[in-house]
C-alpha cells in the first residue's frame, strides 16, 4: 500500500484520531505539568528531597508499568470487542483487570508500608535520601489499590472511545493534588507544615477523590462499564485463557522493561545524588512533551483494535502506516521544541548550577533521540499490541533494553566513569536499535491478529 500526503490527511481519519488523542493528550499534559509543579515545590525543600521522592516514585513506577501491562492487555480485547459490539465481554475484561491489578497493588502496598527502607536501599546508599523517601513511601503506598481500580476503568473507557471522562477525572484529581501540596508541604493558610510527608498525603487524598468521582459518573450515567458484580466477574475459562495468552507478554514486557528502567536509576543514583536529581528533573520535563506520543499511541490502539474486531484488516493496516508517518513528523517537531526550550523550563527549578547543567545536557540528549522515541511508542503501544502481536513486542523491547541499554548504563557509569548526560545518551540510543527492528515488522503486516474471534 502506498501512503501519500493526501490520504494521510484524510478528514475522516484525522477527525477520529483527534477525538481520541486530544482528551488523552490533555489528560497526560495535566498530569505531567502538575507533576513538574510538584517537583518544583519539593525542590524548594532541597535536592535530597527531590532525589527521595524520585526514588520512592521509582518503586511506584514499577507498579505503574505492571498495571499498565495488565490494563493494556485488557485494552487489546476491549477495542476489538467494541468493534464487534460485544459489551458483555467488555465488562468481563474489566473484571479480569480489576482482579489482577487490585491483587498486585495490595502486594506492592504491603511491601512499601512495612519495609520502605529496604526498598529504597536498592536504589541508593544515601541515608538522608532513604530516611526522607521512607516517610513519603509509607503514606503514598496507601493509594496504590485506589490507583489500580482507577487504571482499570480509565483504560477500558479509552478503549471504547470514551476518553473525555478519564481526562476530566484526572484533571480534578491532579489539581486537588497540587493545591494540597501547596498547603501541606509548606504549611500555608494555617495548614500543618509537613514537608515531604505533606506531598504524600496530598497524593493519597487526591487519588481517593479521583476514584469516587469516576465510579459515581460511570454508575449514575449507566455507562457500558456500569456492571453488577456478577457481570464483571462471571468470566469464562475461554476468555481468561485467551486474555492470559495475549496479555501475559504485555505484562512481562512492562515488568522486565520497568526493571530495566530501575537498573538505569540504580546506575544513575550510584554516580551521585546530583546525578539522579538531574535525571529526575529531565524526565519530569520530558514527560510533558511525551503527552502527544501517548495520545497518538492510544488513539492508534483504539482505532486499529476496533477495525480488527470488526474484521476490517485492510483499514487497520492503513491506519498503522498513517500513524507510523505521523509519529516521525511529531518526533522531529518535539525534539526541536525540547532543545530550544530546555534552558527556559529549567529556570523554574530551585537547583544548584551542577544539577541545572546536568539536566540541560540530558534534555539535549533526549531531544536528539525524540523521533525514535515517539516512533517506538506508537509502534509498541499503538500498532503491535492493538494487533495482538504481543510476543514480538516483548522480544523487541526486552532485547533492546537488556542486551543493549542496561549493559551500556553500567559500562558508561562505572567502567568509563562518563558524565551523567553521556551515560543517558548511551542508554537512550537503544531507541534507535528498537526502531531498526520494528520498521520491518510494521511493513510485513504480520502484526494483524483478531484475538476476540470465537469468544462468546
From TrEMBL:
Localization terms from the record: Cell membrane
PANTHER family assigned: MULTIDRUG AND TOXIN EFFLUX PROTEIN MATE FAMILY, NA+ DRIVEN MULTIDRUG EFFLUX PUMP
Protein name: MATE family efflux protein
Membrane topology: Multi-pass membrane protein
Highest taxon listed in the record's lineage: Bacteria
Annotated organism of origin: Alkaliphilus hydrothermalis
Transmembrane segments: 58-81, 93-116, 136-156, 168-187, 199-219, 240-264, 284-304, 325-349, 361-381, 401-424
Keyword list, A-Z: Cell membrane, Membrane, Transmembrane, Transmembrane helix, Transport
Keyword Transport: yes
InterPro entries (UniProt xref): MATE_fam, MdtK-like, YsiQ
CDD domains, A to Z: MATE_like_8
Major localization class: membrane
Amino acid at each position: 500500500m502506498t501512503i501519500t500526503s493526501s490520504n494521510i490527511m484524510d478528514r475522516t481519519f484525522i477527525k477520529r484520531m483527534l477525538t481520541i488523542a486530544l482528551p488523552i493528550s490533555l489528560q497526560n499534559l495535566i498530569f505531567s505539568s502538575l507533576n513538574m509543579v510538584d517537583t518544583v515545590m519539593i525542590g524548594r525543600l532541597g535536592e535530597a528531597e527531590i532525589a527521595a521522592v524520585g526514588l520512592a516514585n521509582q518503586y511506584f513506577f514499577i507498579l505503574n508499568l505492571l498495571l499498565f501491562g495488565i490494563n493494556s492487555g485488557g485494552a487489546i480485547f476491549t477495542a476489538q470487542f467494541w468493534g464487534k459490539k460485544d459489551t458483555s465481554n467488555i465488562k468481563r475484561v474489566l473484571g479480569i483487570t480489576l482482579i489482577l491489578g487490585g491483587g498486585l497493588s495490595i502486594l506492592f502496598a504491603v511491601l512499601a508500608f512495612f519495609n520502605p527502607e529496604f526498598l529504597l536501599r536498592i536504589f541508593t546508599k544515601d541515608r538522608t535520601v532513604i530516611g526522607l523517601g521512607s516517610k513519603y513511601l509509607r503514606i503514598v503506598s496507601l493509594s496504590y489499590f485506589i490507583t489500580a481500580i482507577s487504571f482499570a476503568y480509565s483504560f477500558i473507557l479509552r478503549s471504547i472511545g470514551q476518553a473525555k471522562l478519564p481526562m476530566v477525572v484526572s484533571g480534578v484529581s491532579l489539581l486537588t493534588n497540587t493545591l494540597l501540596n501547596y498547603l501541606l508541604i509548606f504549611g500555608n493558610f494555617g495548614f500543618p507544615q509537613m514537608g515531604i510527608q505533606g506531598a504524600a498525603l496530598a497524593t493519597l487524598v487526591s487519588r481517593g477523590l479521583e476514584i469516587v468521582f469516576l465510579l459515581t459518573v460511570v454508575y449514575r450515567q449507566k455507562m457500558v462499564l456500569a456492571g453488577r458484580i456478577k457481570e464483571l466477574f462471571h468470566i469464562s475459562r475461554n476468555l481468561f485463557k485467551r486474555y492470559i495468552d495475549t496479555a501475559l507478554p504485555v505484562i512481562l514486557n512492562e515488568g522486565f522493561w520497568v526493571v530495566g528502567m530501575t537498573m538505569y536509576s540504580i546506575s544513575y543514583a550510584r554516580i551521585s545524588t546530583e546525578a539522579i536529581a538531574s535525571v529526575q528533573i529531565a524526565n519530569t520535563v520530558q514527560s510533558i512533551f511525551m503527552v502527544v506520543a501517548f495520545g497518538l499511541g492510544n488513539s492508534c490502539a483504539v482505532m486499529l483494535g476496533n477495525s480488527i474486531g470488526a474484521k476490517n484488516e485492510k483499514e487497520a493496516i492503513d491506519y498503522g502506516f498513517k500513524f507510523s508517518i505521523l509519529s516521525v513528523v511529531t518526533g522531529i517537531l518535539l525534539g526541536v521544541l525540547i532543545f530550544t526550550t530546555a534552558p527556559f523550563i529549567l529556570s523554574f527549578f530551585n537547583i544548584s548550577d551542577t544539577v541545572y547543567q546536568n539536566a540541560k545536557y540530558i534534555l539535549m540528549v533526549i531531544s536528539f533521540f525524540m523521533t525514535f522515541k515517539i516512533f517506538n511508542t506508537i509502534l509498541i503501544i499503538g500498532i503491535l499490541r492493538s494487533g495482538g502481536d504481543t510476543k514480538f513486542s516483548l522480544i523487541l523491547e526486552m532485547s533492546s533494553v537488556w542486551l543493549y541499554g542496561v549493559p551500556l548504563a553500567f559500562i558508561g557509569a562505572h567502567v568509563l566513569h562518563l558524565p551523567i548526560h553521556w551515560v543517558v545518551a548511551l542508554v537512550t540510543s537503544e531507541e534507535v536499535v528498537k526502531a531498526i527492528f520494528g520498521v520491518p515488522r510494521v511493513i510485513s503486516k504480520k502484526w494483524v491478529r483478531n484475538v476476540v474471534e470465537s469468544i462468546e
